[in-house]
């Protein structure tokens, strides 16, 4: 098999999962039991896990289609996610929660959201750097515009390209139209994300024309399924 440099090997994804699980546990968090199901267990219990599958909860590892995970990538695990229908009608499960790991100097590239507001929380590790820009009147990226965010509930104005440095325990609230990129500084960072309903298919607007999900080379069997595997592996 010829390796496509723009693809992530499944063996690398399996290794990242194991490393991430170890880091998550080291900070006192434990993933839900279904996180550790094998692909065969997931297939056998797909009807029981319909809410997990439909909400696209679970493992998510991306290099944004660029094939340079260490330089530009992100580990995510969606713990819970609500329904856009509930959000639209103004009641019900309108929230989501994730754990993320941003490795040292690993860029999560500049993007914003149309629907989602989110709290980005440094849950432990090194410093989390969040670079900020505002939007033009149409919501597009504008390198000349700043804005206002809340850090741990305290209002803070930012100029274009300002960099927040969040120590463990600190957080920033980002609203739709707040353009942001982030990375770990001085080491790896465990990040919490608490937000309105999350839709990774359509609600990530990147400044550059990049993909949200990785292309995968199946050099070994998966240890656990990614959310991007559900459609093919579970025939949904």
Automatic annotation (TrEMBL):
Pfam families, alphabetized: Lyx_isomer
Membrane-crossing segments per the record: none
Cofactor(s) in the UniProt record: Mn(2+)
Reactions listed under catalytic activity: D-lyxose = D-xylulose
Any one Gene Ontology molecular-function term assigned to this protein's record: D-lyxose ketol-isomerase activity
This protein's record includes keyword Hydrolase: no
Entry-linked Gene3D superfamilies: Jelly Rolls
Keyword Glycoprotein among record annotations: no
EC number(s) stated in the UniProt entry for this protein: 5.3.1.15
Domain of life of the organism encoding this protein: Bacteria
Sorted UniProt keywords: Carbohydrate metabolism, Isomerase, Manganese, Metal-binding
Family: Belongs to the D-lyxose ketol-isomerase family.
Protein name per its UniProtKB record: D-lyxose ketol-isomerase
Native source organism of the sequence: Yoonia vestfoldensis SKA53
């Amino acid at each position: 098999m010829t390796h496509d440099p723009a693809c992530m090997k499944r063996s690398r994804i399996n290794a990242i999962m194991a490393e991430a699980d170890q880091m998550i546990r080291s900070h006192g968090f434990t993933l839900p039991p279904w996180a550790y199901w094998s692909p065969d267990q997931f297939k056998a219990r797909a009807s029981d896990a319909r809410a997990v599958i439909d909400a696209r909860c679970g493992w998510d590892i991306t290099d944004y289609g660029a094939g340079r995970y260490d330089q530009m990538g992100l580990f995510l695990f969606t713990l819970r996610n609500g329904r856009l229908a509930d959000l639209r009608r103004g009641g019900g499960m309108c929230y989501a929660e994730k754990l993320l790991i941003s490795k040292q100097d690993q860029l999560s590239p500049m993007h914003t959201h149309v629907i989602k507001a989110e709290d980005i929380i440094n849950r432990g590790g090194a410093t989390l750097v969040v670079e900020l820009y505002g939007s033009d009147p149409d919501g597009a990226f504008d390198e000349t515009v700043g804005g206002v965010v809340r850090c741990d509930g305290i209002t803070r104005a930012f100029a274009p390209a300002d960099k927040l440095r969040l120590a463990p325990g600190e957080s920033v609230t980002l609203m739709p139209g707040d353009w942001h990129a982030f990375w770990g500084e001085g080491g790896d960072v465990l990040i919490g994300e608490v937000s309105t309903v999350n839709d990774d298919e359509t609600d990530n607007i990147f400044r550059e024309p990049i993909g949200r999900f990785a292309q995968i080379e199946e050099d070994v069997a998966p240890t656990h399924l990614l959310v991007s595997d559900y459609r093919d592996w579970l025939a949904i």
